[in-house]
Design goal:
Radius of gyration: 34 Å
Helix content: 55-70%
Strand order of the largest sheet: 2-3-8-5-7-6
Pfam families: FtsX
Membrane topology: Multi-pass membrane protein
InterPro entries: ABC3_permease_C (IPR003838), Membrane_comp_ABC_pdt (IPR038766)
Structural class: alpha+beta
Number of helices: 28
Main location: membrane
GO cellular component, one term: plasma membrane
Distance between the termini: 36 Å
Amino acid sequence: MSLVTAARFARRELRGGLRGFRIFLGCVILGVAAIAAVGTVRESITVGLGREGATLLGGDASIELTYRFATDAERAWMDETADAVSEIADFRSMAIAPDGERGLTQIKSVDAAYPLLGSVELQPDMPLAQALDGRDGLPGAVMHPILTNKLGLEPGDIFKLGTQDFILSAEILREPDNAAGGFTLGPRTIVRTEALGASGLLAPGSLFSTEYRLDLPVGANLDAIGAEAEAAFPDSGLRWRDARNGAPRVEEFVNRLGAFLILVGLSGLAVGGVGISAALRAYLATKTETIATLRTLGADRQTIFLTYFFQIGVLACLGLAVGLMLGVGIPVLLSPLIEARLPVPAVFGAYPGPISEAVLYSALTVLIFTLWPLARAQDIRAATLFRDAMETGRILPRWPYLVAIAVLVMALLSAAIWFSGDARLSLWTAGGIVGSLALLSLAAIGIKQLARLLKPVIRGRPSLGWALAAIGGPGTTAGPVVLSLGLGLSVLAAVGQIDQNLRSAISRDLPERAPSYFFVDIQKDQMPGFLERLENDPEVSRIDSAPMLRGILTQINGRPAEEVAGDHWVVQGDRGISYAAAVPDRTTITDGEWWGADYDGPPQISFAAEEAEEMGLVLGDVLTLNILGRDITATITSLREVDFSTAGMGFVMLLNPAAIAGAPHTFISTVYAEAPAEAAILNDLSGKFPNITAIRVRDAIDQVSDLLAGLASATAWGAAATLLTGFLVLIGAAAADQTARTREAAILKIIGASRAQILASLALRASLLGAAAGIVALAAGITGGWAVSHFIMDTDFEIAWTSALLIVTGGAMVSLLAGLGFAWAPMQARPARILRSRE
């Protein structure tokens, strides 16, 4: 028969409405809506960052320098190239209140031109220039409310930065360029750079960076100007950035989180696919007589296949359209609420990229999960269809359909890799989904077999026996229930295990080994007094100190470092560098030899062994480091173990002293002390050396934990969407099973079963299936959590039993609720009417 005939049959089938396809549509709508919503929010932020890039950056372009201000020649080039230039210095220090309370702050010192774009909003409302003017001979400052609350300061109060008094003029409500700064450990304080002259905070060797924002002429060629800057000052170590990438750290974070959530959304689509397949099988089972009639009238396999394929296609398109409207419309409608919670600008709208992504993912998923039941239905003979459409005939469809399904799966995986930009994460996700589906399928078969084996053993417990018979008997819904609920719970279990293990590594294990404080910006002549205070304190168990510089790894064997090492973190930005004459304590050389104590030859470098392996570095490689605008070329002569997981002192690169000891630098120190002594140590050292900055490690850990909590929350929402789809599939399975359970209840009533026994049987059946799905999901989730923790996060793994028990309990409860929700019809069944209708 022709395509026209199949289309006509499909149109007639659709006249019956959506009956039998509600779960199918629900799964499609939820899947496409979740992916479209995540993609829309991600794209809205990306567009907002691009549109407001100049404001976020603070200018059309910026030049960043480490440890120094621009030279006269560099500043002259900037003044000649740009219409206006603003100079900013950024560093950490301690703010000290009149009562001695201290707080870590991220200081931004600015000039009169700041900000070139946008404005700083203050409370009380006033221009920034007026706030920084100060009064009564004291320079002014503005501070973030978090820090003013901690220090107990109000506008008009005096506080110290280093050895300089400042008057607090106002609190910061908004910085236009705050997103460009990335992660900081302390709340913001803004002062004028010229006011820091007497503070001792910008002494030679202090840890600070400078940024020069450029307001360029209209129509300026950003690429050409950037290339000109790098060509004019090739050995300066400057980093060029322009408004097209105003907040790169934020954009990268948003893209990675969005990609991860999209992959979590694919897990939801897989759950929905199980529901789609189950709903289609149930629907085709009701079409036994229709299909058989068509076959006896001469309809061939292709006509049967195309008839229902067209029907599914129309309904899938309807589901896609509704899902897209929800996935795009809800973020747009809620944009005021979402924007209020975002630290960056976002421009919400319907963007073709996320829409195309959602449509492609969903269409491929629908095709993958509908081809199998459609192929089986069209391959069964007419006589067999009169007996049972889907329980007889071959299990696997013909090989062309298997090949088509395999091709579609590969296309879906390729799309996931393309859109996420992370092949490793995509492959891990795909492997996890396929592995979970395989495990859950085997579990469903095992559960049915176990139910059959246990049924004869159960005596004197009729309700349990009936429940086991329903699970192991013909027409059981164990397969779709375990698959749909189990996969949703697997995603949730994996997220829970990863989250708990990350929190454990950060908030429990790490503090046992971590130092109490990092002290930075210690001048060389302050080291004797610094050590004297600590070495005489019995509460201090360990002190590690080292000279500290920062530099950029620019070249490896004469080639650009990023060309050799890719996007490895060591070559992204500046890194801490130190020097040592002898092998430092607790250091293990894994390869090569250490230079002698009196070595003064060509520069040599000792590199962290693990990072060297990741970057492909070996002994004899030549590295070029830019330190304070000067290039230093050194040869790798040794590799050593560096454990960054302890939060202690660790340098990727150590040089021989003669190579860099003459450069201006300060010292860094880590102090391990008992908790009760921490406050006294901080007060004594910051009082004696006000220029020193103390970073309390526990506070930094808490901030990282808060950040991870936000990530876990976002991921949990994605996993919850997957679980919601699974619950929808579960409802569909319960609804499809209602007729069989009603007839079963009628028979049980005839043989004397009470309503309580029947209800108990239905509840036990649902609970056992849910608990079984939860247990299998737990195994899959623990395996996935271990794999991510071990191979990606590189952290120790322990089973989080609280989360695990919640998963199993939740599976049983969700299945129980769905089962009880459809128990009304079987409970109300009248045996005579039910059995008469079956004659």
